[in-house]
Amino acid sequence: MTFLMLLSFISFWIIVGNGERVPDWRLALIQSTIFWGGYLILGIEILSLFTALTRAAVSILWTLPILAGIVWMIFWLKQGKILRLPVVYHRDSWIGFVLDMFVILILVITAVVAFVSPPNTNSAMVSRMSRVAHWKQNQSLAHFATGIESQNSNNSGADQIALNFYILGGDDSAVNLVAWIGFAGSVAAAASLAKVLGANVNGQRMAAIFTATLPAAITQASSMTNHIVVAFWIVSAVLMLMQFTKQAQKPVYLFFAGLAAALAIITKPTAWIYLWPFGLYAVVVLRQRLGMGKMLMWAAYAFIILGLLYGGQILRNQETYGQFYRPAELAEQMNDLRNWRVMISNISRNAALHADLPFPRADGWLLSNLETLHERLGMDIHDPRTTLADRFLIPEVSTSEETSGNPLHAAIIILSVTAIVGMVLLGKEDPDILVYVGAIFLSMAFFTYFLKWQPSGGRLQLPFFILFAPLLAVFLDWARKTRIETILAVILLVYAMPWLFQTAERPIIPADKRTYHLSVFNENWQRLYFATNPEDYKPYWAVTNDLRARGISRIGLNLSPVSEEYPFWALLGAPDTKLQIKWVDVDTPSARYSDQSFDPEAIICENCSPQVIARYAEEYSHLEYDTIDLFIGEE
Predict the structure, then answer these.
(1) Distance of CA 390 to the CA centre of its chain
(2) Is the pTM for the entire model greater than 0.85?
(3) CB count, 10 Å around CB of 82?
(4) Which of 102, 132, 133, 159 is the most buried (most CB within 10 A)?
(5) What does the pLDDT read at residue 190?
(6) What pLDDT does residue 475 have?
(7) pLDDT at 98 over 60
(8) What is the DSSP letter of 155?
(9) How many helices (H) and strands (E) does the chain have?
């Protein structure tokens, strides 16, 4: 039934595209995706209010836009208007065609990997897919009793999209496509943003290639993470704002900018750090062009949209934690020390995530220089107040979705920005482009000021890389060296191949010591859940196989806050209306939602204390599977 979501999107795309006399189908695709996302979040929140997150109700939710599209087309044709259908591709040159085919190949390969691989990201196994399974079981987004509070408190934008795939598809086979949508959308948005900034067709293509070959983006494209999703919403919001200020002052662009910004914040609360400079730019421009009254009106609209889409999450968190976000999670991510020295420290350390230098002992040389810099700043490079890890380290070159950096792209950005500043100083480029550059750098400054450094920070910086992509297009357009563009495009495409075929967690072609040992096309689906920790497969499989063999369907969970909960759901056959899985003996803020009437036939206990094990053993038969204790009630 997931095809209903696709047909609804096509309806939006056709309607939006035909709204222009000369349709820009790529821009319409981005606008339609934004509207599709807003409709999804609002629809799911409404259904949740009535405890109606069922396959039937969600199918109706996605049937309505299809019917509306059919009615719209009938009226459109009755008025004697021409119905234009999306033009997916138009060839401009043979070289361009070949390069475009490679970009399409990257999109196709990442889509296939996303579809044939189950979700196996650690955050998905611990929290994100677990909450999706609970929502489906409860038929509501309401908070539930859990020992892993992030399942309730974390922003849920991307997970609500995954929930639709999970409900309509009847399994988790399509949930990784949420990230792929963000990846493909980011490629299109980068090209459209390059067009807004004045790049020609070749420049727009380079922006798309730059984005499509980002190693961190490729590894995220087939995963169950939300980093590339929030990057897409952020870049889309900026694109719509720039469309308004640079192309045409149409209110529809402000509508989509506000909606995309809201979707970004719903997906990750830290999105405001990337968006605030562009929001400030919007306030200044709207004040100048529309006046104070209309500027305030649009600001009110933005907050209303955010309230409609984000209000449910805020109210749920307020009820459980007493504020809109769980305090522990805010404290964990945010710097405990904030000053100009911290900014310099985090700028240098975040840059090191993309500094895979091509000569022996490079990491040692770089680390030595960073330590010297911190000594001069009077700071500890491992300071826990600014470091979300036991200590600072320079990640090894890898194809992992956790730590992949973008060294080649970072070098290209430095060159492009330097060249554009020089072009402006020489009077060969519009100075307005420096406002765009300045907004990106301001958001980067806020990023380093507020957020701690972390080894996996490279993926958090994806919005910056994608926003910088159009600057390469502008620079190459000015240089007017088609051969250079082609050579650079080929270099980027070849450079991306290891990440495309050998993503560590989901390899097509396995590599010893770099990736999981078997290809996603050859490995058993169940084993792929454990690609990052294969040693856990046997105990998880043994526990769930035992439960299924006994026909047990009411199962209690008592796990640690870092336990990978979702594999239990998947291996037990969820989603299944006969299956009930709930946490027991919860001592977290969500304990108030415990179902006192729930009488489990079995309890899965991981890393439980001896006292808890002894108490369960009084009422249940006790079986041990490595670190997992299974308690079975009397049959």
Answers:
(1) 25
(2) yes
(3) 7
(4) 132
(5) 96
(6) 86
(7) yes
(8) -
(9) 28, 5
Cβ atoms 397, 356 nearer than 8 A:
yes
Helix (H/G/I), strand (E/B), else coil: 580: strand
Q: What is the DSSP letter of 565?
A: -
What is the side-by-side strand order in the sheet with 580-583?
580-583, 554-558, 602-606, 628-632, 621-625
Residue 359 pLDDT grade (very low, low, confident, very high; cuts 50, 70, 90): low
**Token pair recorded at residue 40:** 């999804």
Q: At what angle do helices 407-425 and 462-479 cross, to 10 degrees?
A: 50
Q: How far apart are CA 263 and CA 158, in angstroms?
A: 9
Write out the H or E segment, with its range, that includes residue 605. strand 602-606
What would the DSSP string read from start to end of 397-410? S---TTT---HHHH
Spatial contact of 386 and 335, defined as CB atoms under 8 Å apart = yes
> Whole-angstrom Cα distance, residue 109 to residue 508?
9
CA–CA dist 96, 91 (Å, integer): 7
Residue 412 has pLDDT above 60, yes or no: yes
- Check if the beta carbon of residue 345 is closer than 8 Å to that of residue 386: yes
Q: Got the DSSP string for 440-492?
A: HHHHHHHHHHHBPB-TTHHHHTHHHHHHHHHHHHHHHHHHT-HHHHHHHHHHH
Q: What mean pLDDT comes out for the span 334-345?
A: 90
The mean of the pLDDT values for the chain is 90
**Residue of 456, 634, 449 lying closest to 532 (CA atoms):** 456
> Helices (DSSP H) in 142-291: which residue ranges?
150-153, 157-169, 177-196, 201-212, 215-221, 227-242, 251-267, 271-290
Main-chain dihedrals φ then ψ at residue 476, nearest 5 degrees: -70, -35
My answer on whether omega of the bond before 215 falls inside 30° of 0, hence cis, is: no
Q: Which residue has 């999450």 as its token pair?
A: 313
The helix/strand/coil state of 68 is helix
Question: What does each C-alpha distance from 226 to 209, 265, 314, 447 come to in angstroms?
Answer: 21, 12, 19, 18
